[in-house]
Write a structure and sequence with these properties.
The structure is a single chain. By secondary structure, the protein is an all-alpha fold. It has a single domain, classed as Growth Hormone, Chain: A, CATH 1.20.1250.20. 90% of the residues lie in helices and 0% in strands.
């Protein structure tokens, strides 16, 4: 991850990690063989391990020093709640629709997160400023 951040920057590294995570989940959803599913699982684990430090680095750099502990706690709480929500809904999805539905839901959420991150980090500043100004009227 440090080499990727040095070469691509934080934003692109995060996007590569999220897209890799979503792609690995798609492999898990449509794996025709348990060996292919194993590769999808390894890809998911590797993408998460690649993505997490880049996200933490980005989050901690944009937050003032006095708010970093609070931000870290909020991120950990959000991850825990997200994991609990996927585990709870995952049991329902798996029992009614099978494992592919859970992996597809995860891939869709990863894609949505990547799109939101991309829009926030690469959207032209005039567009964001204009949108915020429209909300305050």
């Amino acid at each position: 991850m440090p080499l990727a951040v040095g070469r691509w920057g934080k934003r692109q590294t995060i996007l590569v990690g999220v897209w890799s995570l979503g792609s690995s989940l798609l492999v898990l959803a449509f794996a025709p063989h348990c060996g292919v599913a194993g590769l999808g699982f390894i890809g998911t684990s590797a993408a998460y391990a690649f993505l997490t430090p880049a996200l933490i680095l980005c989050q901690q750099e944009i937050i003032p020093a006095e708010w970093r502990a609070t931000m870290s706690g909020a991120v950990i709480m959000g991850r825990g709640l997200g994991t609990a929500a996927m585990a709870g809904s995952g049991g329902y999805l798996i029992s009614h629709f099978g494992y592919p539905s859970l992996f597809l839901a995860g891939a869709m959420l990863a894609t949505l997160g990547a799109m939101l991150f991309w829009g926030y980090t690469w959207a032209p500043r005039w567009l964001i400023t204009r949108h915020i100004a429209g909300l305050t009227r």
